[in-house]
Design goal:
Length: 619
């Protein structure tokens, strides 16, 4: 018979163990290290932050900034636990404006790596450095060193002295992606700071600082492309000590669920806040399609004393003194913005529609029933003077004459009569909108008739002209996905994709392959902007199949395959909510052929209906 279990005595843990337990709460992976160091740089007033990695950050992390630096006499103190310049008394916790405040990041990092800090506190100050390797030996320094104003922190061999922890780190590519994802999100929260990420053999990014009232819009454009940035709607509201600002996409630009373009900052701190995310989804309501999520970059400001930031080990969550009031404020503010951006429904007979005849009087107008059409919110280019106002009021206007244009670039619609093709006006920039007909075509009023744009063929033609550059000497620029798309493929497909990687890279698709049990894991990192309308996850799997089924395909063959896929996908979409917004001013006029790729297989995409075409029907 065994006796009662022996109870171990309560004892004070050794300092080495304390430090490594504490490091485990703060330092999870290389991205955690980068987060702490970059936030320290921002707290130091940096305007430029440069992050250099090796081995995905496991081998080396170097963060450089141009902040105010650390004086020589404080360098060693910075490596001590709970040493900080950001608060001095308990009451300071209620008014925190800095990202860091606990004084545990640097000692935690030093306990599980080989750490070096070099800093210069100003243009007239001398620079010094300190070093520490784990916690088994005391830090050395400070020693004089050449260094510009600011601070550099180098972290080498992360978790070298905690092998069990190091074994749980992911592959180099995965760790690099985590760092990149964090920096891109942080860049959205601080457009006034320039960020640069470098890694040997991998494509990082560099984005300049932006200032002024449009700084956030410029930053969104730099990270996700100008077309997407132009589609975003500004958010600006204030009420009773609360302030919200930023940008949100209207429903037709909601993002695929995997892109992760959903950022909240609270008093400048990037946070994960389910309550705020829920408020955004509630504001979107039924306009949110399945499989997609709101796309937004929003900043919330409130009095620091109404906020508790000391509730999460990595400071990723916050608590509010009045959470319901905050959520209601966000909900009402976003509903107002989205309601203003919503399309207003009007009417046209869906089939067998009879248009008012072309008439000869100078000022003839006639009202029209527009059932089945919805007004586009973006302006149309080059509408004839006088048409826009009458269209907006529900009337059609027709007048003699009109700007003469070539008919090249669009086709005569079957059954059109009444107006000479040379007298058709193109859609106009000064107008207030066009119409979407049955979710299938954009309709732009003009003198004597209507221009109809087939969106599927226009999107395919646009993609074809963009990708045509990759079939020649120049490569097509790809836009980096905020979160890489993964697809598991078999070994045969992996070999085919590997053979085509160079060709696909010229077309703007950066692809990495990682070994997996059943073959390989395909990581899609970038897409050319015209293909961003395709679902990236479905595209990854289809791309692998095509590589296997069409080995040795040339760049032109790949470009045609991508465009055919874009045409097929958008031709099948009948829901108006699925249609992307068109930047009307960027469209070629109906009478003008695009300047490049004259042999595009996807034209004509403009069609014409004369107002005198009785019984004309939409396709």
């Amino acid at each position: 018979m065994t006796g009662p279990p022996i109870r171990p005595p309560i004892r004070q843990l050794p300092g080495l163990l304390i430090d490594q337990i504490a490091a485990g709460e703060v330092i999870e992976r290389p991205a955690s290290v980068v987060k702490e160091l970059v936030e320290n740089a921002l707290d130091a007033g940096a305007h430029q932050v440069r992050v250099e990695l090796a081995g995905g950050g496991i081998g080396r992390i170097r963060v450089r900034d141009d902040g105010h630096g650390i004086p020589a006499e404080e360098l060693l103190l910075a490596l001590g636990r709970h040493c900080t310049s950001k608060l001095t008394r308990l009451a300071d916790l209620d008014t925190l404006a800095s990202l860091g405040f606990r004084g545990e990041a640097l000692p935690s990092i030093a306990s599980v790596s080989r750490l070096r800090i070099a800093s210069c506190a100003g243009p007239d100050a001398a620079a010094f450095e300190v070093r520490q390797e784990g916690v088994s030996a005391p830090p050395s320094g400070p020693h004089p060193v050449a260094h510009p104003p600011g601070t550099t922190v180098e972290v080498e061999d992360l978790f070298y002295n905690v092998p069990a922890r190091r074994r749980f780190l992911k592959a180099e590519a995965t760790e690099f992606e985590q760092v990149e994802q964090f920096l891109r999100r942080l860049a959205l929260s601080r457009p006034e700071v320039s960020f640069r990420l470098e890694h040997p053999g991998r494509r990082g990014f560099s984005i300049a600082a932006a200032v002024g009232p449009d700084a956030l819009a410029v930053r969104v454009a730099g990270l996700f492309g100008r077309p997407f940035a132009r589609a975003m709607r500004p958010v600006e509201a204030r009420a009773s000590g609360l302030e919200i600002s930023g940008w949100i996409a209207p429903p037709q630009h909601f993002a695929p669920a995997h892109t992760g373009l959903a950022l909240w900052t609270v008093n400048g701190r990037v946070v994960r806040d389910p309550a705020l995310a829920r408020a955004v989804r509630m504001a979107c309501g039924e306009a949110l399609p399945a499989g997609r999520q709101p796309a937004y970059c929003l900043h919330l400001l409130l009095a620091p004393e109404t906020l508790d930031v000391n509730v999460h080990p990595m400071k990723l969550e916050v608590r509010y003194r009045d959470a319901r009031r905050v959520q209601d404020f966000v909900l009402s503010s976003l509903r107002a913005v989205l309601a203003a951006a919503a399309e207003v429904t009007a009417a046209v007979p869906p089939a067998g529609m009879v248009w008012p005849p072309a008439v000869g009087s100078e000022n003839h107008t006639r009202s029209a029933d527009l059932t089945g059409f919805s007004r586009a919110t973006a302006p149309l280019p080059n509408v004839a003077e006088g048409v826009a106002e009458e269209v907006a009021s529900g009337a059609w206007a027709a007048s003699r004459g009109g700007e003469r244009r070539s008919t090249q670039g669009y086709a005569q619609w079957p059954g059109t009569v009444g107006v000479d093709a040379a007298k058709r006006s193109s859609p106009a920039a000064a107008a207030g909108g066009g119409w979407v007909a049955g979710g299938r075509a954009w309709v732009a009023p003009a003198v004597g008739g209507l221009h109809l744009l087939d969106p599927a063929r226009w999107l395919a033609d646009r993609a074809w002209r963009a990708l045509a550059g990759g079939t020649g000497d120049a490569a097509v620029a790809g836009q980096r996905l905020l979160v890489p798309v993964r697809a598991t493929i078999d070994a045969e497909s992996a070999a085919a994709v590997e053979a085509a990687r160079g060709m696909l890279g010229r077309l703007g698709l950066e692809i990495h392959l990682q070994p997996a049990e059943s073959g390989a894991e395909l990581l899609l990192l970038t897409l050319p902007e015209p293909l961003a309308l395709l679902h990236a996850e479905a595209l990854s799997a289809a791309l692998a199949r095509h590589a296997r089924e069409a080995p040795g395909a040339e760049a032109a063959g790949w470009a045609r395959w991508f465009c055919d896929r874009l045409l097929a996908v958008w031709s099948e979409r009948a829901s108006e909510a699925d249609l992307p917004a068109i930047d009307w001013p960027s469209l070629p006029s109906p009478g003008d052929a695009p300047a490049c790729a004259p042999s595009s297989p996807y034209r004509p995409y403009w069609h014409w209906i004369a107002l005198g075409a009785a019984g004309a029907e939409l396709p």
